[in-house]
Amino acid sequence: MTRPRAVLAMNPRLVHAVFDDAALARLRRAADIDTGQVLAELDSARSRDALAGAEILVAGWDAPVVRAEHLPGTERLRAVVYAGGVAATCLEDPAAFAARGVVAANARAANSGPVAEYTLAMILLANKRVLAEERRYRASRTLPDHFGGYAGCGNYRQTVGIVGASTVGRAVLGLLRPFDLDVLLYDPTLTAEQAAALGAR
């Protein structure tokens, strides 16, 4: 079976941050791709030739935007796979590509887990006043007031607000469930019952 021709497009410095060696090896097995060639722009003849030969555009952060002027040179393109949250980020007119049958895929679900975990960590640390205490200690080099400085400090029955029941928002809501927190959710697309089902009000 012939492997589809693919090309990478992103900030070249990010390739090894997005793909480890095992992922690059899998990519090379699945597609005819030179993982050493990364398109950081689409204005040179070399980049346009690479794009013209591609059936799959594997894009990431800081990928050059495929504009209307590039459309005549992308007849072979069948898919745009974006390593970030929104594949349309690297397409000036996503509808024009969709009309030609180009499929767009993203890593929103895969990325939402680590983002939600980081968000949870920051919520818990903020309620414990860790960041404020770090700044205070850095300035004063004195221990905190253990008797008067901890009122309201901690996560027990604290109020946490989440704006948007997006993929990340829902993942954060799920991670907050084990904690005794009062979770408020703002999302105009949800009813109170739907918010309650997500563990919020």
Walk me through the structure:
The chain has 201 residues and is an alpha/beta fold. It folds into 2 domains: 6-106, Rossmann fold; 110-197, NAD(P)-binding Rossmann-like Domain (Rossmann fold, 3-Layer(aba) Sandwich), CATH 3.40.50. 37% of the residues lie in helices and 13% in strands. The chain has helices at 15-18, 21-30, 45-52, 94-99, 108-127, 130-140, 167-176, 192-197; strands at residues 6-9, 38-39, 56-59, 79-82, 103-105, 159-163, 182-186. The strands form 2 sheets. It has a 5-stranded parallel beta sheet with strand order 2-1-3-4-5, covered by helices on one side. Strands 6-7 form a two-stranded parallel ribbon. α7 links the parallel β6 and β7. The longest helix has 20 residues, at 108-127. The model has no long low-confidence stretch (mean pLDDT 92).
Chain-averaged pLDDT = 92
CATH classification, class level of the largest domain: Alpha Beta
- Helical segment tally? 8
Spell out the helices and strands N to C.
EHHEHEEHEHHEHEH
Number of domains: 2
By DSSP, the count of extended strands is 7
What is the first-to-last residue Cα distance? 53 Å
Structural class: alpha/beta
Shape: elongated
For this structure, what is the CATH homologous superfamily of the largest domain? NAD(P)-binding Rossmann-like Domain
Strand order of the biggest β-sheet: 2-1-3-4-5
What's the alpha carbon Rg, rounded to whole Å?
A: 23 Å
Instruction: Please state roughly what percent of the residues sit in beta strands, choosing from under 5%, 5-15%, 15-25%, 25-35%, 35-45% or over 45%.
Output: 5-15%
Major beta sheet summary: 5 strands, parallel
The share of residues in helices is 25-40%
